[in-house]
Amino acid sequence: MPWWQWVVDVLGVAIALVVVYAVALIARRRWISRAGGTFDLSLRSGLLRPGRGWALGVGRYTEDTLEFFRIFSVSPRPMDAIVRSDVEYLGQRSADPLEESALYAGHVIVSCRRASGDLELAMAEGAVTGFLSWMEAAPPGQRPRPV
After folding, report:
1. 51 and 119 co-located in one domain
2. Cα–Cα distances in Å, from 140 out to 1, 4, 86, 133?
3. Measured between alpha carbons, how far is residue 123 from residues 6, 31, 33, 35 in Å?
């Protein structure tokens, strides 16, 4: 077989793999959002270096947990799960110029603390209202957390 046929075969396989990956990402996103309650969310934990370490993704509320799924992963499991009773709201701020290029446009950064360390969430202003409402809500018989 001539060398150019090998090149065409390799390119064909590479294109097929890219298409399969894209279809898997779309199918996963639809599977995650099937129950509703999903929104664009970015997460940064272990705040070691300012402006770095952001992971783009999708957030989904399930009962007492906010699940975070990375946007470019095909794993059906969340990368992180934030349990309502284990997180404390510290405040919010605008993204600095270093962070703006790493986040979705127009997102606000929410600072939180949990037992495993501090974390920051970046979400749209409307999603911040929903997040704060979720933080204040508690199942019957439990004391709501002060915000």
Report:
1. yes
2. 71, 69, 18, 15
3. 46, 21, 17, 20
Q: pLDDT tens digit string along 115-137?
A: 888 899 999 999 999 999 988 88
Low-confidence residues of the chain: pLDDT under 50: 147
What are the structure tokens assigned to 85, written together? Answer: 């009773």
Do 63 and 114 share a domain, yes or no? yes
Is there a contact between 118 and 110 (Cβ–Cβ < 8 Å)?
no
16 three-class SS: helix
Question: Domain of 65: which CATH number?
Answer: 2.30.29.30
In this prediction, residue 121 carries a pLDDT of: 94
Residue 73 domain boundaries:
36-147
Q: Are residues 80 and 15 in the same domain?
A: no
Strand 117-123's sheet: what is its strand order?
80-83, 65-70, 55-62, 38-45, 117-123, 108-114, 87-94
